[in-house]
């Protein structure tokens, strides 16, 4: 009696939409798959072919093993267990299949049925603790012992007698002959067959109407011509220009070598949460999988700052009734691409995911292996093509719970020790909720990082069910405990540095290294002794002219040595530095000077007049007398809360806005930067930022306070990327602060330049960093140079830092912000 598909009635809307998608392009309702002749070599399916070639490339690794365990409780009959195992092997040719090749072309070799012996390990009479050790060793051996694809068998079983009323059948299958759905088929059949043999009952199943070899022949004949062209057109359009890599923030740099060492971390979503997720799915005409996937897309978007999210998901690929009861490798992988807009509602994103998923289901007959061939993506060693993150919802056929009171057969959880992808998330129904597992590469991620990821995903699901109309970019990601850690512990966890005015740090360097070069511009060099003498001279002039401590002093000087001297002199005189760009219009300069209430302006003849400075004291450097030996009326050391500088925002809102930062914050930023940077004493840094931009303070103080050399350039120089490259080369610059836009321009100029650069550290700030191929190629020509992505608003000087090391080709295209520091650290 053949098995008939039950009539589908009373479907919920979300179930009907899946059935419609399935019928749309799957062949449901069309001709049945025919039996194929066995008069020649049996071809491999496309999925099998891929595993065959992977085995040749990476032999001797149990990466594609599928272990399972079936406990037997009550009456334990070893002979019945062996008979049931052999009957399953007889029923399914694929479990008697091995593989060979001729002229490099593999084919299936199907052996006739011959009963095999199931080994037995009897642990019933040994010490319980010793029995547990032996059992674990047996599980590992059965799961990890290698298969020989050429000679087989490609499945094995072992019966472990735990007690008089308890045994466990350990079985392992190579993925080339089975898949996840096959495990449900195997458990169902073994369960029924064990019961039949143990109690003398008749065979519970007819023989399968087809074998896996029939499917492979049919798949090969069907996937050609117009049908293949239709599938190819869809997938080429859906996946056009997808990102090469998902830039997950990793704990360890990628090496580029193929690595598969992995681990897994389990979690559980309780029934109330799953019920709310199901309610949302029903309300939106979606499925639970779609809701879970949309939330995972949000998580990846938030982790990577990449709006184009690409994941892989396995699909059973049994779109015909005659395939449902077979054991074999039918599973396919779909590549799902989602555009995530942080400003859109989650409900809207779910609609996008719903449409994407249904379209993919309607075109699921395209084997992933053929898809890779058609798209020809850029290949990188150790990186899966098209996607590196897997998301799987394993809603497999129901397993039987119990046959009578004497056989309770339940699957056992297998612990992953290898990882095919960078990151995989598996979910399956369990106990009214969902059991989940995160599988990850241990060469990329730490265990605690995965624990946090699980917490973030769970928190996202709770936030989504609370209000699906929230914007994607505003959904709560951090669980309560982690939120407390970020908002409290991290802000005060580091030792509080003792307050030292920034200028005092530079004075100390000048005393210890007076002849070291502090400033360098073109062919002019200034030692630390000369710099201190010059700044003391200007600071003394300010004091002699009655400029009070804490007063704002404007510096209107072009980029160069004099501008640095003026900046340091203001700090030395215990005043507040106000940079005023001489290229600004007179009206803007007057507005800024009035807003800051400047008491004096340091400049040179011809740059300013009273129309700009008003009542402020005008101090022209080219009119100062010879240097003085010591400061007149030496200023007291500035208190931590005194303003160190006042800068003005760009005025994008219509009028420049003054931002004042105290010495405490500048001290915190400086201490943090010196601790973060790889720069050492004597490091040569280019002063690239405009003097009216706060990064110029960071460049100048971080270099001079560490005994380095500050290389200066003119405004005309900094506008020409090719000229900047030449200055970097000629002055052997080792550290560069530069906005991402200029980094791209330098990379483009560097593509046609053969200049040798000494760069060891590039720090970007000012805008979101995106690494394009041109930038990566240029950075690959700077061996040993690290890139640091910093972020911090001018109003606070709280900074974050994310260093990138290792091969630039493996860096994320949109690096994370990193961990905070800077002015947030405060002072003691």
Instruction: Report the structural category.
Output: alpha/beta
Radius of gyration: 35 Å
Report the strand count: 27
Q: Low-confidence stretches at least 5 residues in length (pLDDT < 50)? A: 1-29, 397-416, 627-634, 822-828
Tell me the helix content.
25-40%
Q: Any idea what the shape is?
A: elongated
User: Quick check: average pLDDT?
Assistant: 84
Strand order of the largest sheet: 14-13-22-21-23-24-25-26-27
Strand content: 15-25%
The main pleated sheet reads as: 9 strands, mixed
Entry keywords:
4-stranded mixed β-sheet; alpha/beta; 24 helices; 27 strands; disordered C terminus; 828 residues; disordered N terminus; elongated; 9-stranded mixed β-sheet
Structure overview:
It is a single chain. The protein is α/β, with parallel strands linked by helices. Helices cover 36% and strands 19% of the residues. A nine-stranded mixed sheet has the order 14-13-22-21-23-24-25-26-27. Helix 9 (288-304) crosses helix 12 (447-466). Mean pLDDT is 84; it is low at 1-29, 397-416, 627-634 and 822-828.
